[in-house]
Amino acid sequence: MNLQDPDLFRNAALIGGQWLARPDMAVTNPATGAVLGELPDCTAEETLAAIASAETAMVEWRARTHAERADILMRWYTLMLENTEDLAQILTAEQGKPLSESRGEVAYGASFVRWFAEEARRINGKIIPSPTAGKKIFAMKEPVGVCAIITPWNFPIAMITRKVAPGLAAGCTMVVKPSDFTPYSALALAVLAERAGIPAGVLNILTGKPATIGATLTASPVVRKLSFTGSTRIGALLAEQCAPTLKRLSLELGGNAPFVVFDDADLDAAVEGAMQSKFRNGGQTCVCANRIIVQSGIHDAFVAALAKRVDELRVGAGTEAVDIGPMINTAAIDKINAHVADALDKGATRVTLPRDLPSHFADPVVLAGASTEMLLAEEETFGPVAPIFRFETEDEALALANGTPFGLAAYFYTRDMARAFRFGEALEFGMVGLNTGLISSEVSPFGGVKASGLGREGAQEGIEEYLETKALHFGGL
Ligand code: SIN
């Protein structure tokens, strides 16, 4: 990396405003396997120290005016944009995505900081007329308290700002545990947060392995909320750990997104949408199309056009001019290979050209003839695999689309307006893209139903997750 500001690359965790360096845990570049640096594997005592400093810092932070907190968040937003190139370099080095996507993620991540800086000024309560004369009831909004934030490796910047910015705007303080694969983006954000004027202890970053830190955060009665993005299995485990202390929960968990193309769709638009939805971050997003479900009349033309586009994708290190970088680790590659092998074994046909790639990279592939018996119908592949399921009727498409315990994102392409409403309403998902493969935005509520989790991030809903409502009853008026 050739950073304009090398100070953004910190080999230290941040606890109560103190940077703690200790070379316990190496972080590697997924494209090359090269070690980027070493960080502390924070202990239970260090986690408790971070919680204590967040508790202390909250007294002063929540007392600030909404306008002051908004101004600080706006400075953080500006600093993020001013440092886009360095943040993108760090992100690509530790996560692998192409630099163009990393720059996009910095802008996406910063958009949440700006949005919640603006929302900070609109935290309003209400006055409720009392049924008894001489009384009034004030419903006031207050910060939830100290929040634990556990974030994934696929969006090392945006998943932090989408949680931290509304929390800070609301007056909460934060203990953040970024993925141990991608901690440096979080640490760079924390350097910029300090420069923006976020006081010591308000934002703490714990590096290390998840088990000890997660168990300590979830057991603490001081921590009043947990926000987690990751797998359904870990989300359920964290929820169980939070149950004895009854914390507020926001859980953004796994998906298994259907992408339905009806015969009356605009073919070019549907192919473009499938490319965007399926291959963003090499297929490593929770909202990626996992099952592409295509009506028989348009099926062959769609498969041919998609395969042509996929064969053109460039795969390589994110620092080169590529479309897909490395996968995050060998476990990810193994899962992708297992899904492809299982599908081929059960009758799917590969319609894209095979490539000979180094071991850190996955071959982007389109598979025709997918069926519900295959592993990739049940689980997120989390890689660049596009399986195509064929259907005849709308009812069949709906049953296929909803036939999953997950309910995060779904997409469909049609030019029939009546079907657009009918099918859009019948889909059991938190987010639906109609004639678009891109649904992520700071202004839109992000989150799922069923096994995909609880709560919403971004939008007006996002700040409510960090606020409690207190009813203050005034008598004798
Ligand atoms: C995710 O994959 O968890 C987030 C994707 C997004 O925000 O678009």
From the structure above, extract its key features.
477 residues; alpha/beta; seven-stranded mixed sheet; six-stranded mixed sheet; 22 strands; 21% strand; binds succinic acid
Quick summary:
It contains 15 helices and 22 strands. It has helices at about 45-65, 65-80, 85-95, 100-120, 160-170, 185-195, 210-220, 230-240, 265-280, 295-310, 330-345, 375-380, 395-400, 415-425, 460-465, and strands spanning about 15, 20, 25-30, 35-40, 125-130, 135-145, 145-150, 175, 205, 225-230, 250, 255-260, 290-295, 350, 365-370, 385-390, 405, 410-415, 430-435, 450, 455, 465-475.
Description:
The protein is α/β, with parallel strands linked by helices and 477 residues long. 40% of the residues lie in helices and 21% in strands. The protein has 15 helices and 22 strands. The strands form 6 sheets. Strands 14-15-16-13-12-18-19 form a 7-stranded mixed β-sheet, sandwiched between helices. Helix 7 runs parallel beside helix 8. It starts with 12 loop residues before the first strand and ends with a strand. The model has no long low-confidence stretch (mean pLDDT 98).
